[in-house]
Structures are given as C-alpha cells and as structure tokens.
Write a structure and sequence with these properties.
- 6% of the residues lie in helices and 42% in strands.
- The chain is built from four helices and 25 strands.
- It has a four-stranded mixed beta sheet, with no helix packed on it. Strands 16-23-22-19 form a four-stranded mixed beta sheet, with no helix packed on it. A three-stranded antiparallel beta sheet has the order 1-4-5, with no helix packed on it.
- Strand 20 and strand 21 (246-249) form a beta hairpin.
- The longest helix has 6 residues, at 232-237.
- The mean pLDDT is 84.
- Keywords: Calcium, Cell adhesion, Glycoprotein, Membrane, Repeat, Transmembrane, Transmembrane helix.
- InterPro entries: Cadherin-like_dom, Cadherin-like_sf, Cadherin_CS, Cadherin_N, Protocadherin/Cadherin-CA.
- Its main location: membrane.
- It is found in: Membrane.
Length: 336
C-alpha cells in the first residue's frame, strides 16, 4: 500500500478500548500518540501491557490489527498507605522487641520496593524481611530501653527505595508515643520542715506547706498527702490538705499543754510509691496566764525591837513563766 492511498481508502483507527490513544496521520502514515500513556493506569500489575487497535480501510474493506506494547519505566515513587505511622510503646518494653511496620508499595511492577532505611537514632534499628512472594517488609527492633521522662515522644523517618534506575524513594514519619510506667518515687523538697506558731492562733491558719514532686508523667505523677503514724494530739490540732500539702490549724494549741508537735507526712503517687518528710511545729508562748498566789497566814509575835527585813508574811506564787512575774518582783525576788 502506498501512503497516498490512505486518504483514498478512507483509512481510520478503531480502538479496542473506550479511549483512543492513537491517531493516524493520513499524509505520512505515522501512528501518533494522542495522550500520555501510563502503564500502571492502563494495565495495573500485569506482566504484559498491550494496547489493541485496528486500522479500517474502505473501498475495499480491510481490517489490520495493530498491537502496541507499553514498556514500563521507573516513573513512580514508592508510597506508604499513610504519611505517618503511629506507635504506642511502653517505656518498660524489653529490648529486642519487634514492631512490624506498614509496607510501601511501588506502582512500577518491575521496580518494586527493594530497600528500607531508618533515620539514625539511639533506640531502634531496622530489620528487613522477605515474604514468600519476594516482597520486602520492615520491622522496628528496640535496642535501647525507652525512658518516658527523658523522651516522651520519638520521631523517626522510614524510607523505602525501589529497584529502578534511577532509584525512587518514598518516606513516612514514625511517631512513637512512649507510655509512662510508675518507676519514680516522689521526692520532697525538704526532708524536715521547722515552723513556729504562736499559741492561741486562729483556726484554719496556714502553718506550712509541704511539697513533693514525681518525675513520672500523667496520672502517675499525681501526688496525695497524708499523716503517717502521728499522735492523737496532732490529729486534733492540725489539718492536712491531701491534694495541696497545706498544713493548717484544726484546733487550739496551748504552749502550756504541748510545746512541740512532731509529725510525719507521706506523699503517695497513683502507683502506690511513697516518700516521707517530718514537720516540727514549735509553739511560742503568749502571756495568757495570770499568776496564782497562795497566801498562808500564821500567828507569829513580832517584837517591837525586831530588826529591819524581818520576815512578817510568807507567800508562795505559782507562775507559768518568768514573763508573767511583775517587773518589780522579778528584780527583788531572791528565789527568782
């Protein structure tokens, strides 16, 4: 057939598919590509990708079969199903524990994923395995124990490369939430708290505040406070806020009754771990007691020529403190 006969014979192309990918140049006889062809979109994962079309001639009618084989090139990047891979891992998980990861898929059949790589880090390595069909998959392997208090979250980059030339690479971010376990004991800011309080101070007055902290995270760091093996007079005179650690007066305190209160306070976290501190409360005295004087009279003759400073009356006074003795007596009383 001569090219000049194509027009006379009304040559045209009829595609075997719904879309016509080629057109016929009647002047040159060339088969021309109309649109960009994507082997993966047309044939998926088939080994052989062939487009069928027919050239129809009229006068006389003839059909000529045309087969165009589409060859794959490495034009697609490997892709993960999700751009982020989320993992929740307890900080007490043993080393050498494995965590299977999402696989990446390359659209180019002849250039499937061949290599997985992990960004440098101190806790995990990557172990690449092969399935029975030859496809590759990766597992995350823990090599160094995790610590939620030091690194509550880790971010790693997982890369997948295919076997094409040049290689195409796809990536996904691995976000690891390190779950906390109760492995830290609460710590008080001070082991001993010393305070002074005036006797007869008003009820609900703040005496002191004990404070403890916990290096754990979340609910394991929540601390409650309580008395530990204290005497009954402490429970009658003081109140402890279990959430804030504030120690306040719950009853009257009297220096003459108790001069010093000692109490142990316990700080306990949600996991049951406890620490202890001591609070020493010194009660300061106030001049709130009048002297009690007992006078004893006796019948004793006094001679008219008795010398000066002869004892006429003797008295006994009971004082709680020296401060309660009147100033003139403090200066002259020989027994004081």
């Amino acid at each position: 057939m001569d090219v000049k006969d194509l027009s006379a014979w009304k040559a045209r192309l009829v595609s075997k598919s719904s879309k016509q990918h080629f057109q016929l140049d009647l002047h040159s006889g060339n088969l021309i590509l109309k649109d960009k062809i994507d082997q993966e979109a047309l044939c998926g994962q088939k080994d052989l990708c062939v487009l069928l079309t027919e050239m129809v001639l009229e006068n006389p009618v003839q059909l000529h079969r045309i087969e165009v084989q589409i060859e794959d090139i490495n034009d697609n990047f490997p892709q993960f199903a999700k751009s982020q891979i989320l993992l929740d891992i307890s900080e007490h998980i043993p080393t050498n524990t494995r965590f299977p990861l999402e696989t990446a898929h390359g659209s180019d059949r002849r250039n499937s994923v061949q290599i997985y790589a992990l960004s440098p880090n101190e806790h995990f390595t990557l172990d690449v395995q092969s399935d029975s069909d030859g496809s590759k998959y990766a597992e995350l392997v823990l090599k160094k124990p995790l610590d939620c208090e030091l690194n509550p979250q880790l971010s790693l980059i997982l890369a997948a490369a295919d076997g094409g030339i040049p290689k195409r690479t796809g990536t996904a971010e691995i976000i690891i939430e390190v779950l906390d376990t109760n492995d830290n004991v609460p710590q008080f800011v001070q082991s001993v708290y010393r305070v002074k309080v005036m006797e007869n101070s008003p009820l609900d007055m703040l005496v002191t505040k004990v404070e403890a902290s916990d290096r754990d995270i979340g609910s394991n760091a929540h601390i409650t406070y309580s008395f530990s093996q204290v005497q009954e007079n402490v429970l009658k005179s003081f109140m402890l806020n279990k959430n804030t650690g504030e120690l306040s007066l719950g009853g009257t305190i009297d220096y003459e009754e108790v001069g010093i209160y000692e109490m142990n306070i316990r700080a306990t976290d949600r996991g049951g771990l406890s620490a202890y501190c001591k609070v020493i409360v010194e009660v300061e005295d106030e001049n709130d007691n009048a002297p009690e004087v007992t006078i004893t009279s006796i019948n004793s003759p006094l001679l008219e020529d008795s010398p000066l400073h002869t004892v006429v009356v003797s008295w006994i006074g009971t004082l709680e403190t020296m401060a309660e003795l009147p100033a003139p007596l403090r200066q002259t009383c020989p027994l004081c």
